[in-house]
Amino acid sequence: MVDVLSQNEIDALLAALSSGEMNAEELKKEDTEKRVRVYDFKRAVRFSKDHIRSLTRIHENFARYLTTYFSAQLRTFVQINVVQVEQLPYDEFIRSIPKLTILNIFEAAPLEGRMVLEVNPNVAFAMLDRLLGGSGTAPSKVSALTEIETNVMERIFSKAFDSLQEAWKTVIDIEPRMEALETNPQFMQIVSPNETIALISLSTKIGDTTGMINLCIPHVVIEPVMARLSVHHWFVSQKKARDEKDQIALTHHLNQAKLPVIAELGSSEITVHELLNLAVNDVITLNKPTNGGLQIKIGEKVKFIGNPGQVKGKVAVQIMEVVEEEEEDVE
């Protein structure tokens, strides 16, 4: 789109040309030169700003679910927040994490490919210490995991993927499954070094221990559902049809719900003195005529008009008329 200059800008431009501050020939030369934009093929841009915003929203929910899950498991203060969502080459991610860390490699069917949940050793060992009965402090020196520690880690993080499944429900139903737990990033090659990944960084605080949890999602893994990460799909997507089994169960429970049914002859007001002196054969005058029909209330609303009677020796009411909504308040 061509920019439109204001009159003041035009006057200033003409004054600069006439005074010699600007050269018309140089301006023409600049326009004819090709404009080159630098593009680094090692840092290919695969995720748009729209995609990044959607990933941020999804994983903000993931962070909340994780906070609830770890708080319940560790029985201590846990706070997890999304710090940053960015795209970078896989090789750069591998070089940025510690040489000894906790790498939870997992798959999420129906998506094809592997993803990684990297947990900083300070955070991971604080969790481990808490699960094994400690106060939840990270050791001053991080060492290799024993077989027991590895099993404990696998158990707590494999269940943490349920939070990821819940967070992605608005986009796609996935079934995350832990595939392996590694501690050396050099032994983990889930995609080619130049493959673009989405890196979701979560700041984590467990008691007094702080650290990062990084979720690495290769572009090639979520490429089939990239269209669903657009703002248009996020807000305009149709509501999912209710599952038939859920609908049958809901109908069944509604049919079993009990509501009070009251047939009201009428009402009257008497004094306490009159109430205390009531005797057999006394008559209380109601506010309704005998031929006016009974108001039948469902809950607190009048729904029907009926006549009193008996059926098989029991008091009963015969429905004679259905009360429309606008007639409910009519006395």
UniProtKB/TrEMBL annotation:
UniProt key word Transit peptide: no
Q: Where in the cell is it found?
A: Bacterial flagellum basal body; Cell membrane
Could you list this entry's UniProt keywords, alphabetically sorted. Answer: Bacterial flagellum, Cell membrane, Cell projection, Chemotaxis, Cilium, Flagellar rotation, Flagellum, Membrane
Coiled-coil regions, chain positions:
none
Q: What is the lineage of its organism?
A: Bacteria, Bacillati, Bacillota, Bacilli, Bacillales
| PANTHER family documented for this protein | FLAGELLAR MOTOR SWITCH PROTEIN FLIM (PTHR30034), YOP PROTEINS TRANSLOCATION PROTEIN Q (PTHR30034:SF6)
Task: Please report the stretch or stretches of sequence annotated as the Flagellar motor switch protein FliN-like C-terminal domain.
Answer: 253-323
In this record, what's one Pfam family?
A: FliMN_C
> Membrane topology per the record?
Peripheral membrane protein
Q: Which family does the record claim for this protein? A: Belongs to the FliM family.
Q: What is this protein called?
A: Flagellar motor switch protein FliM
